[in-house]
């Protein structure tokens, strides 16, 4: 079956189907993370005292990871721009960098988790740690999902560039939308959990 | 996004992406240094969230191309923002009615 409007914009919406579908998916993701942020506010505002994130978490490490994720967002959008400039080799480099930076983020995060566990700090230890592990854990799962999708587009999925370059460019663009959303969530998670 | 068509247009976009990256990195460092200021908790929260909103707007506007997006996408986003705001206001309204929850460490 032929999927309609993968290259040309659908007349009534003005965008390709994949883009509208991705934005609708991201809307559901906003509600998912919104529910957890709402829980965080509920627990924090209702608590008589709340620990300062910087006393429990490693702020320089968190800052480093934030810069890594922002960097990966730039390389992601650069990979799409490379395709628009018909430079497939450059696309492979930028997409490869995006995947690499995402893996760096996950490795750093796993070290952070391990450091907490070695000090017997688990989700059950406190409400703060419960919400910290829930929010960052869910975010890390999204990073893993992004790595899988981006790796597919870097590797086997990139064969489409030869047969349908415009469709492939659109695919990378919507994968980028998801990836930037993952970055956006972290932009809010970092100050909320580490600094406040 | 009304995708850039010419090579010159794409190259212009690339320059903007680099500038936005530098701005995001700088704002991250500002957030961290601002967290060391000796101000009230409310001020800390206001400063950190303000910077986060600015950073988020930069990512959404330029990396996600919202700055030149079609109406249908904004329609989806407006509905999302309304429900998201409602979700965040729920605990506040509940706490104003019933007061604090039990103490949490």
Q: What are the key terms here?
A:
heterodimer; A: 196 residues; mainly alpha; 79% helix; elongated; B: 105 residues; 0% strand; flat
Summarize the topology.
The complex is a heterodimer of chains A (196) and B (105).
Chain A: H1 17-46, H2 53-56, H3 59-84, H4 88-118, H5 127-154, H6 160-163, H7 165-195
Helix pairs in contact in A: 1-5, 1-7, 3-4, 3-7, 4-5, 5-7
Chain B: H1 7-34, H2 41-63, H3 71-98
Can you walk me through this structure?
The complex is a heterodimer of chains A (196) and B (105). By secondary structure, chain A is mainly alpha-helical. Chain A contains seven helices and no strands. Chain A is elongated and about 60 Å long. By secondary structure, chain B is mostly helical. Chain B contains three helices and no strands. In chain B, helix 1 packs antiparallel against helix 2. The N and C termini of chain B lie far apart (46 Å). The mean pLDDT of chain B is 87. Classes of the chains: A mainly alpha (196), B mainly alpha (105).
């Amino acid at each position: 079956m032929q999927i309609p409007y993968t290259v040309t914009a659908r007349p009534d919406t003005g965008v390709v189907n994949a883009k509208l579908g991705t934005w609708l998916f991201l809307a559901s993701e906003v509600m998912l993370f919104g529910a957890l942020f709402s829980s965080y506010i509920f627990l924090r505002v209702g608590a008589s005292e709340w620990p300062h994130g910087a006393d429990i978490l490693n702020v320089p490490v968190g800052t480093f990871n934030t810069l890594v994720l922002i960097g990966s967002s730039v390389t992601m959008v650069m990979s799409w721009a490379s395709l628009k400039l018909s430079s497939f080799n450059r696309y492979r480099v930028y997409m490869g960098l995006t995947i690499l930076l995402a893996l760096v983020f996950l490795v750093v995060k796993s070290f952070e988790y391990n450091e907490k566990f070695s000090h017997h700090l688990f989700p059950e230890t406190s409400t703060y740690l419960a919400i910290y592990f829930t929010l960052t854990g869910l975010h890390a799962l999204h990073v893993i999902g992004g790595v899988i999708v981006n790796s597919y587009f870097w590797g086997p999925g990139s064969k489409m560039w030869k047969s349908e370059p415009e469709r492939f460019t659109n695919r990378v663009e919507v994968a980028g939308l998801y990836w930037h959303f993952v970055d956006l969530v972290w932009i809010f998670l970092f100050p909320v959990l580490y600094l406040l | 996004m009304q995708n850039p068509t010419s090579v010159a247009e794409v190259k212009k976009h690339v320059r903007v992406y680099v500038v936005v990256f530098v701005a995001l990195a700088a704002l991250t460092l500002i957030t961290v240094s601002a967290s060391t200021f000796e101000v009230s908790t409310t001020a800390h929260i206001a400063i950190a969230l303000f910077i986060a909103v600015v950073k988020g707007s930069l990512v959404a506007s330029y990396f996600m191309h919202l700055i030149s997006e079609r109406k249908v996408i904004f329609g989806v986003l407006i509905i999302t923002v309304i429900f998201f705001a409602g979700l965040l206001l729920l605990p506040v309204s509940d706490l104003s009615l019933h007061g604090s929850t039990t103490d949490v460490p």
